[in-house]
Amino acid sequence: MDKAGKSERKAKLKAWRDGEHEKARALFPLESSRLQHFFDGVEALRAEQGCFHDIRHSMQVIDAMQLSGAEANALLDWCNDHGGFCDCEIAGNAFLYWRDARV
Ligand SMILES: [Zn+2]
User: Fold this and answer.
1) DSSP 12-62
2) How many domains does the chain contain in total?
3) What spacing in Å lies between the alpha carbon of 41 and ligand 1's midpoint?
4) Cα–Cα 20 to 30 A to 40, which of 26, 79, 86, 94?
5) Cα-to-centroid distance, 3 and ligand 1 (Å)
């Protein structure tokens, strides 16, 4: 492939990724500033205490953020959808998914 072809492919790939990220952002369960707060809180507790293979840290942060039941459910469902089933997976998989797609 020549150079022009390569940069065209790169541009197409970027456009596709941007589109995927836009779709991903539309499904974020909370605005990014609150997700940032959530992930920071979970990661801080995980770093300090480790993961207990449950979501106790996430629940503690959700509690502190005073999310409604509906918001908490949407957030945890969304974490599940992106590989976050326990605190370390939420701080890892779901966090990386969010970080990649956020603006
Ligand atoms: Zn874990």
Assistant:
1) HHHHHHHHHHHHHHHT-SS-HHHHHHHHHHHHHHHHHH---SSSHHHHHHH
2) 1
3) 15
4) 26
5) 45
Q: How far is the CA of 50 from the centre of ligand 1 (A)?
A: 8
Residues within 5 Å of ion ligand 1 by Cβ? 51, 86, 88
List, for residues 25-55, the tens digit of each pLDDT value.
Answer: 999 999 999 999 999 999 999 999 999 999 9
Q: Supply the pTM of this predicted model.
A: 0.89
Residues with Cβ < 8 Å from 27, sequence gap 6 or more?
78
In the reported structure, the alpha carbon of residue 64 is separated from the centroid of ligand 1 by a whole-number distance in angstroms of: 21
What does the alpha-carbon distance between residue 93 and residue 69 come to, in Å, rounded to a whole number?
23
Whole-number pLDDT of residue 78: 98
Residues of the domain holding 94:
3-101
